[in-house]
Amino acid sequence: MAIVEVRALTKHFDGDVHAVEAVDLATTDGEFLVLLGPSGCGKTTLLRMIAGLEEPTAGDVLIGGNSMAGLPPRARRIAMVFQSYALYPHKTVLQNIVFPLKAAGMAPDERRRQAQWAADLLGIGHLLDRKPRHLSGGERQRAALARALVREPSVFLLDEPLSNLDAKLRATARDDLKLFQRRVGTTTVYVTHDQVEAMGMGDRIVVMDKGRVRQVGTPGDVYRHPADTFVATFLGSPPMNLVRRDDVVVGFRPESFLPKGVADAGAEALTVSFHVHRVEYLGSERHVIGTVEGLGEETRVIAMLPATVSVDVPVERSHEFVVAAGDLRFFDVGSGLRTERQRL
Amino acid sequence: MEPSGQPGMTRRRFVQLASGLIVATACGGTGTEPGEPGGDAAPAPSSSIVPPSGQLSGDLRILQWSHFVPRHDQWFDDFATAWGEEVGVNVSVDHIDLAELGTRLSAEIAAGEGHDLVELLSPPSAFEPSVLDLTDLNEEVRGRFGQQTELCTRSSFNPTTGKFYGFCHGWVPDPGDYRRSMWEQIGLPDGPSTYQELLEGGTRIREEQGVHMGIGMSNEIDSNMAARAMIWSFGGSVQDADENVVLNSPETVEAVDYMARLFQATMTPEVFAWNAASNNQGLIAGEFSYILNSISAYRTAQQANPDVADDVFFTPALRGPGGTGLASQHVIPIYVVPTHAQNPDAAQEFILNLVANYSAATYNTELYTFPAFRDTVPDLDDWLTRDPFGSVPEDKLALLTDAESWSTTVGHPGPANAAIGEVFNTFVLPQMMARAARGETSPQEAVVAADAEVRRIFARWRERGLVGGQG
Amino acid sequence: MSTPPATAAGTAGTAEPGGRYLLDRKGFLARVMLLPAVVYIVALVAVPFFLAIAYSLSDVTVGDPSFDFVGLRNFATVVGDPTFRRALLNTVLITVVAMALVVVLAKVLALVLVQDFRGKWVVRLLVLLPWTTPTSLATIAWVWLLDSLFSPIDWVLRQLGLLEGNLYWLGNEGLAMTSVIAVQTWRIVPLAAVIIMAGLSAIPSDINDAAKVDGAGFWRTLFEITIPMTLPVIAVATLFGAIVVFTDMAVVFVLTRGGPVDATQVLSSWAFFRGIQGGDLAQGAAIALFLFPVLLVFAVLILRSAKRMEVM
User: Fold this and answer.
1) Which of A24, A181, B150, B392 is 20 to 30 Å apart from B11, CA to CA?
2) What is the mean pLDDT of residues B366-395?
3) Could you give the CA distance from residue B292 to residue C128 in angstroms, rounded to a whole number?
4) pLDDT tens digit string along C185-226?
5) Shared domain check, B81 and B16
6) Nearest CA to A88 among A36, A143, A11?
7) Are B345 and B323 in the same domain?
8) Do B433 and B334 belong to one domain?
9) What is the reported pLDDT for C16?
10) Which residues pair with A320 in a beta bridge?
11) Tell me, which fold does domain C81-311 have in CATH?
C-alpha cells in the first residue's frame, strides 16, 4: 500500500491548452480518492500523469514517497482500469489476467494460481476461457478489475470504470467495487464525472474544474461546505441555490429551503418571500420552482420538499419560506470563494 | 543494338540531332557539324515516285519502329505521305518501340485486324501462316533492281514451304568497335583481326591499361549476335544449310571454350547483366576496349562526345582459327503484309517505291541501314569512303564497303527459320556461353545442353511444317 | 442509360408508369449496378483465363492462331524444361523472401508512421511514392542504381572503403536475385505499410496504454498485442503483395531479363520470352497457367483473412 502524492503537477498541451494547472494532492494510505469534475476538467489527464502515461509539463508525482519522474508506467507499481476496460480482444480472460504477471516474469504455475484467485475474488472464475467479446459489460468490467488486481499493485487507478454499464448494473457495480476496495485495502484514485458515484464511493472527493482543484474533502464536507460557487453548483441535484445580495452571494440547498412552519428552523432562520411558478412532482419529492423576493436580486431558485411534507404550495403566489441559519452559505461575488457568514 | 533500351539516351540524341539540323539549316546546309553532311561529299539524294502498275486507292496503314536516327523517320514519313498523295492512297505511319513490334503484330494477328504493312527487325519467320506470300513482289523487285543480298533472301524466304513470308529491303552490318588509342599502345592500331588477337590484345590491355572488354552474355540481342559470330567463325553453327541441328560439334565447343577464356582474361560479370545499351555506354565511357555493335554507338558518340568518337574505329568480323570470319547482320528490316491487310496492293506498291528510293533511305539512316538491293544505292561505297556525316578520318567506315562478304543471317548457313527465331529469342546461345564462362558447366556440357534445347525447339516447329531438316 | 428522358419533354403526366419508377425498383437497380462488374469479370478475367487454357492445350503460335488440340503435351514439355523449373522455383523464392521482408519492414515503417511528428504527412506521401510510380519506370531507376559500372551503391561502398572495383549486382547470380527481391520488396512495402498503418490506427489507444500499465515493454507489446491484433490486416497486405510480386514480370524483364543465364527467370518473364518473343504461344500459355493454382490459394486466404477481420 502506498500514498500517492502530486506536487505542483502541471500539464499543458500544444502550448496553450492548460489541462492541469499546478495541482497539489495527497492520498492517505488505503484511501479511496475520487477525482470529480465535468468533462475536460483535467481529471483524466491528472490520472494519466500519475500512471505515467502522460509526461507532466511540470511538477512531480510521488508514490510511496518516491518520485516517479521519468519512470514508465510499469515501474510505478500501479494498476489501471480504463473506461473501455481495454481488454485484449485476441486473448482469453485468463490470458488477459495473467498478462501483467507474464510481463513481470512470474512462473507459469504461480501465474495461473494468482489469476484464479483474482478471478474468483471478482466472481468470474468460470469465464476464464472466454474471449472478451463473449462477455457481458459487467463481466468485462470485472475481468479488467481482475487484471488490475492480480499483481497486487500499490495503487489502483480507475478511469470511469462504470460509465459503460447500464444504470441498473451501475448501482450494484458501485457497491461491489467499494466493498472490493475496502477488502483489498489498496490506495485507489478514481476518476468520474458522476457525483453520485463520487459521493457514494469516495473517502474523499477532489473537485476539479479547468485544470485546477477547487476543493478536497469528504463527501459530506464538499456537499455541505462547498469551497466556492463552482463546487456548490456542481454537486447536488438540483444544485445549491445562489442569490446575489450586494457584494456577496447567498447559497442554500433546495432541501434546506422549506415552507415556513414545516420544520423548526430555529430563531435565526432566514425568512423570504418565494413566488412560486411551477411545481414538479417526482414521487419521493416535490421540486418547487420560483423566484425569491427581497433577499437580493430576484433569482430563480428551487425548493425540494420531501414527500413527507404535504403542505400545499399553490403556483403564481408568494409564500413564506425559511432557511435555517446554519444552512446558509456565503460566497464572494468576485472570486466565488466562500466567505464569512453574514447577518442578513 | 541501338540505345533504345535507354530512353534518356535517345532523347538526348534526338535533341542534339534536331539542334544540329537547325544549325545546318542556318548555315545554308554547308555546316560541318559531326553527323551532318559536310565538305564536298555527295549531296543528299532526292526521292522519286515509281508509277503504280494499277489503280490504287483507300488507306495504307504502316507500322514500324521508331528509328533511332530521327532524321530517317522524318524522311520516311514525308516520303510515304508524298507517295500516297501521288498515287491516291491515304498513308499513315505508326512508329513504336522496336521491342514491341513482335508483340504488337501477334496481337493484331490474333485480333484479325490492324496494319497493312508491318516492319520487323528480325526475321519474321514465325508469322508465316498469317502473312501474305510475297514471292511475286520479290521477283518483280529483283527484275527491276537486280540481285538481292543473299543474307536478306535467307531472312525472308522459307525453302521448306517455298514461300517469301516477308520482304527484306535492307540490313545493318555488325562490325567490331574498338578504341584505337588503347590498341595502338599494344601495337595493333588497326584493332584485332582474329579472335586470337582479340584475346591476346584484350588481355594485355586489361593488364596494362586496366580496361576490360564488353562482349555480352546476357538475355539480349547483342549477346545473341556475338555468340553466333563466334560460333560461325570457329566453324560451328546451330543448323546446317538444310535445317538439321548441328550445334553440338567440336567447333562449337571450341568457340564456347574460347569465350570462357576470353571472359576470364578480359571481362567482368557485368557482361552477364547488361542490356542493349550497356556496351554503347561502356565504349563511350572508355570502360571497354572492344565491343560488337552497329555503328549506332559511334554515331551517338559523334554527337555526345566527339573526342571519343574520333578514337572509335571498326573492324570487320574477326577470323577464327580456320580463317573464317563471319558476323550476323545487326538488325534486318523486313516487311510483312498480314493476311488481314485491307490494302495489300498498295502495301506492295509502296515497298517497290521504297526500294527504288533506297539511296535516300540509306543516307537518311546516316549509313546505318544498308540496301538489300545493292544497285539501288550506287553511291554507298563513295559515302563509306568519304563519310558525309563527319567521321574523322573520313574513310573510317570504308571497311564496310565489303561488309556483305563477312556478314550473314542468324540462320547461317541455312535460312532464318522460325526455330532459329525461337532459339534467338529464348537466348539459348548466349546462355550456353554464359554457363561455360561462369564455370557452371564445362564448355562441352554447355553445348550438349543447348543442343538438346535447340532440338526440342526445332522439333516443334517441324511439326507445324515451317522448318525443314530431320535432326 | 435508362433514366426516363420523357419527363423533360413536358409529357411528365403521360410518362408510362413502368419506365418512370424503374430505378426505384430494387432488383432492377441492383442488376444495373452489378452489370459493370460482371462485364469486367467476363471480359478481363474469364475470357483471358479460358483463352489461356485453350491455348495451352493447342499448338497456336504468334503467327498462327488456328487451333489444333494437342492435349497436355505442352505441359509435359514445359515441366521437362529446366528453365521452367528454375523459373517456378525463382518465382516462389522471390515471392516468399520478398514477402517476409515486406512483413517486417512494412510493420516497422507503419509503427514509425503512426507516431506523431512534424511533417508526418510529407513523410507518408514520400513513403507511398514507390507504390504510385509505374513499375517499369521505377525499375529503370534501379537499373541505374545497380549498373555494373556506374552503380551509385558501389560508389558509396567504395567511398566508405568497403569495396574495391564493382559488385556487378546484376551480373552475379546471388546479387541479381538479391536485387530482384530488393526491388520487389521496395515496391510492396509502402502499400503494405499503409494497410498495416490503418490496422494499427484501429487499435484503441486504451489497449496500448493498458499494455504499458501492465508492464509490457516495446517487444512484448509488439509481439503479444500489436501483431496479433493487426494479424488479419498484415495477412491481407502480405497476400495482396504476394499476388503482385508473384505475377510481376516488369521488374525481372527490365532489371535482368532473367539473367545471368536463367538465374532470375520467373514464370511470367519466361512465359513472355517463350510465348511471345519466341513465338510458341501455346507453351507460353502453359507456363503462365502455373501461376493460377497459387493465385487461387492466395485469393482464398485473402478472403478468409478479410472475414476474420470482420469478426474481430
Assistant:
1) B392
2) 94
3) 42
4) 988 888 888 888 888 888 888 998 999 888 888 889 889 998
5) yes
6) A143
7) no
8) no
9) 52
10) A273
11) MetI-like fold (1.10.3720)
